[in-house]
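Open question from group meeting: does this chain pack into something compact, or does most of it stay loose? Before anyone orders reagents, we agreed to write out a predicted structure and look at it together. Recording both the input and the output here so the notebook holds the full record.
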Amino acid sequence: LTLAKLKEEAGWPHDGIWGLASLRVSGFVLAYYLLSLVLQAALPGLVQQGVKLRSGARLEYKFNAFSSAVTILLGAAIGTYLDGADFALWTFIWDHYTQLITANLAIAFALSCFVYYRSFSVKAGNKHKRELAPGGHSGNLIYDWFIGRELNPRITLPVIGTIDIKAFCELRPGMLGYVLLDLAFVAHQYKLYGFVTDSIILITVFQSVYVFDALWMEPAILSTMDITTDGFGFMLAFGDLVWLPFIYSLQARYLAVYPVHLGLSGIAGVLAVQAFGYWIFRAANNEKNRFRTNPKDPRIAHLEYMKTSSGGTLLTSGWWGFCRHPNYLGDWIMAWSYSLPTGIAGYIVKRGSPVVMSHGDMVDGQGFISGGPVKHQVLQGEARGWGMLITYFYVLYFAVLLIHRQLRDEEACQRKYGDDWEKYKEKVRWRLLPGIY
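Structure tokens returned:
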């Protein structure tokens, strides 16, 4: 293995490190962010107050992420209708994938530095209702910059108005970017093979439903820890704008090059896993949100709960009596359905194969990618199974993420509820998976 060979296999840019970034690509990414800001300001939306802050004040939020995303996707649909898989957006995403990552990483870094610097202007009792995050002003510069020093940083832009930076990043550019990446990979598979497989369709549909469910239920973010407790720093900025869209879409990127045909039985199995996880996830979140907004709602009025000395209430029956974090459990089960369509993953690209075949033909289950007069053969070979480190990484990572989040949640609850939290744990014993954890 030589350095040159490693660079070729890893897709290292031909022009070296300078090829990792592009001013042109960065400009288009910034234009995409600006479009998201304009749509948030211009389109009608639901205006709602957030939870009460420690100061007793409430911030006002405007929700229209769903209609904003639909507007952008309608434009993409028109372009695809006119140009097919060669629509400029899809080819741009595939051809400039690395530079897109770099541009979003730079934006996340810049936002983190900006909100950290600006957080030092927060004064107690200020008229703008600004507050520092409980765990974000430790005095350690690196930690505070990473975890987020200010709770809900906001900025007022000309014409656009006031933007809550954390809420904007939570559900707008990164979440929709996730769907756009998947669609670009679908288009690329079609360009290479002349068909689209059931596996990549399933993954794209599942992940799109997940995204649009979150966008439709946008007001529910007001009760999440990200909004109520965490400051906005590099952790959330990087997670929202870089990690989520580019890591979560790796399965579709894999299938764009190595198609997998599931068949009816494979589709049925994957659908069952997805439906089961989604049912738990959405039912648990709806139960919590309804209880917090209207405890007399007949759909949840029968649930048992315990009152705490701090004045709060904790559900001890229903989904939240099943385990302490049932929404996380459903989320993790759904994660499997995003990876299972890739099968036992792994492939090798034999470049410049002399095999002469028509575009997209398959021989013994192996695909051939057109490369002009010469074909590039894609087969699993010795790589079979090794690709699972990539396509199933999401399942493992998500388990670690959810356990870490669960521990952070419970640490915050311990501080908030004190002895009452210990009594609650006696009533609801299991954290995530009853009988195991």
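Observations to bring back to the group:
The first helix runs from residue 3 to 10.
The first strand starts at residue 46 and ends at 49.
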